[in-house]
From TrEMBL:
Coiled-coil region(s): none
Record's keyword terms, sorted: Acyltransferase, Transferase
Name this polypeptide is given: 3-oxoacyl-[acyl-carrier-protein] synthase, KASII
Organism of provenance: Staphylococcus aureus
GO molecular function, one term: 3-oxoacyl-[acyl-carrier-protein] synthase activity
One Pfam entry name: Ketoacyl-synt_C
Domain Ketosynthase family 3 (KS3): 1-278
Source domain of life: Bacteria
Assigned EC number: 2.3.1.179, 2.3.1.41
A biological process from GO: fatty acid biosynthetic process
First-level EC class: transferase
InterPro entries xrefs: Beta-ketoacyl_synthase, Ketoacyl_synth_AS, Ketoacyl_synth_C, Ketoacyl_synth_N, PKS_Beta-ketoAc_synthase_dom, Thiolase-like
Length: 278
């Protein structure tokens, strides 16, 4: 089992325990799993590739492919917890975690499940992944661990890699109230877009992100002035942070002056595809 799947299982168990969600033969069909991962089993890939090169194809594990594919986190969590409802995975680069939660939200909203175990997971701290991001000059070259990753600050020069999983239990209000669940928050809207611009860079004025934020507010039936806090992507890259600020200002207008904005990557590093929990 690849490390990204292990992270997902541990986090999912913690989430289900915290939610006091009882998955049994009477509820299993109405509880689904939707956990995203962008890279999937990168460590598994590296190990299998070395075996192939050093010892030949017959030494590659028959479990190589099942351990590698990004939706294996969802599959293994479903097996581990016995959840038999809607099951899938989203792969949308750095938006994977948020998109997974959004898709799970829509599944519950349209009545296809009473509850969903959802989020993102990633284990990218491997030789190949680090080399790839280093080659693209996305990583910080600052050796000071206190200041290496500093989103939106002057002098930022890239991100620090992190890894882990973040999993939520989302549930219909009726189901949560019926079982007396401890409700932390309510999801009221979700928006997703593409800017059709470049394979890695956002559109110069952040128009894709702006349309996604507006779509989420439209879905929720709220206005920019109603939003008090925005958890930004904030990768600590010179271009990315600037474009995100433009997107926020274009979306919120005058309300942006009073909007609280921060990025958790200064604390956790960039967990890549499981990092977008806006």
């Amino acid at each position: 089992m690849d490390r990204f799947t292990q992270y997902a299982i541990v986090a999912a168990r913690e989430a289900v325990k915290d939610a006091q969600l009882d998955i049994n033969e009477n509820t299993a069909d109405r509880i689904g799993v939707w956990i995203g991962s962008g890279i999937g089993g990168m460590e598994t890939f590296e190990i299998a590739h070395k075996q192939l090169m050093d010892k030949g194809p017959r030494r590659v594990s028959p479990f190589f492919v099942p351990m590698l594919i990004p939706d294996m986190a969802t599959g293994q969590v479903s097996i581990d917890l016995g959840a038999k409802g809607p099951n899938g995975a989203t792969v949308t680069a750095c938006a994977t975690g948020t998109n997974s939660i959004g898709e799970a939200f829509k599944i519950v909203q349209r009545g296809d499940a009473d509850a969903m175990i959802t989020g993102g997971t990633e284990a990218p701290i491997t030789h190949m992944a680090i080399a790839g991001f280093s080659a693209s000059r996305a990583l910080s070259t600052n050796d000071d661990i206190e200041t290496a990753c500093r989103p939106f600050q002057e002098g930022r020069d890239g991100f620090v890699m992190g890894e882990g999983a973040g999993i939520l239990v989302i549930e219909s209000l009726e189901s949560a109230q019926a079982r007396g669940a401890n409700i932390y928050a309510e999801i009221v809207g979700y928006g997703t877009t593409g800017d059709a611009y470049h394979i890695t860079a956002p559109a110069p004025e952040g128009e894709g992100g702006s349309r996604a934020m507006q779509a989420a507010m439209d879905d929720a039936g709220i206005e920019p002035k109603d939003v008090q806090y925005l958890n930004a992507h904030g990768t600590s890259t010179p271009v990315g942070d600037l474009n995100e600020v433009k997107a926020i200002k274009n979306t919120f207008g005058e309300a942006a002056k009073h909007l609280k904005v921060s990025s958790t990557k200064s604390m956790t590093g960039h967990l890549l595809w499981c990092n977008r929990w806006n």
